Structure prediction request, 451 residues.
Amino acid sequence: MKLLQNSGIPIYQQIAEQLKADILAGRLKEGEYLPSIRGLAKDLRISVITTMKAYEQLAQEGLVTAVQGKGFYVNAQDSEMLKEQHLRKVEEALLEAVSAARIAGMTGQELQEVLRTLLDMDDERDNQG
Amino acid sequence: MTRIDEKTTITKQGNESQPTRIQDTALQARDLRKRYKGFELSVPRLALPKGFATALIGENGAGKTTLLNILTGIRLDFKGEVTYFDRQEPGICGEIQEQIGYTGPGAYFLPQWTIRQVEEISGLLFHGFHQDRYRAICEELGIGGSGLDVAKEVKSLSDGNRMKLMLAAVLARDTQLLILDEPASPLDPLMRDRLCDMIRDYLEQGGGEKSVLFSTHNIADMENVTDYCLILEHGNIVEEGFVEDLKEKYVLVKGEAADGERAREILFSMNRSAYGFEGICLAGNLDRLAGMDVSLETPTLSQISVAVMKANTSLGKLQKRA
Prediction:
């Protein structure tokens, strides 16, 4: 985890955002406990209250749940919502590709061929790995 | 005396977070009073949050050491009551003192004692003293140079090393509360950093049960280990709260010289120069700065403390009048 002291973004928010990314990417899985508040404060060399505030923010957003005396565990993430978010990302990236293709004067057919080639390359890489 | 009490706390617009309440306390005090000639400590209510590090901040002569001496039981001639941990009855006894580790501004070990004698005496005084832990900490902190020489006398140690020795003797015990009077002052920057780590370690090992109270002038050095803060001025607590809440209560404002006169009426404390002004504003008063060309920042704990102290000292009042 990287924390910037003078970025203008409060430290607790930086922590919350990085943990959120870990949760949404599945690096922190459903039911898993976050590090203890005081353990994380020690590792990041910041105050306990800052870590606590980060965890409370995640709890407010519904990403984690606090259990008295045990800590915070990761909630089940709404997979439909996650899929939706990813779909939007794909659409955005493809739209960018489409407009780049237009500028370059490529036809729709040519663009589809490029996409197919890229997909094939990706499949091959997966098979090798 | 300016006192911004909890009722006037107004959060920033669009920010609905509530100040964190103290849930469990390491100690509570009521109606504390201690009078000297020309000085009176008066603390109607005091609560230390359990599981956190609390900084006691205030200028020289504000009453920090007097307050800490009352809380540790060093000073017993005061009015009021202190209740420790989750006890029902107020008052201090040997059993409670076992649970409190204290380091003071001067070394309380006799100058002719050796590092080994400090160990023997601490072992006699306290049940929960661990010799192996003491030696390990002494060695780790490099007390008296590299390679621990237990025959070394206290008087031959530097101020910094004496503070390290006190910390070693205190951390070698099983305690629930550390009360440290100016622990950072005699330490070099490297050791101050190490002190912050030691406090975090202690809190982490306690898992929410162990607490720390320390006084300091070096707010900036200790900021990253301060959870709760008490600001003492002329024997009164003039501001207190969890640091994250104070950082939302106060806003650092920078502006142009032309707006200085108007801003002076609104800001909680400010500095002016020919080039502009800089000051601390209560978040609730920010809308009154409308129309001014200002930039806003989250203040550091040092900036908040200085602003609160300035607003409360006679020095600050004189400057305001001038």
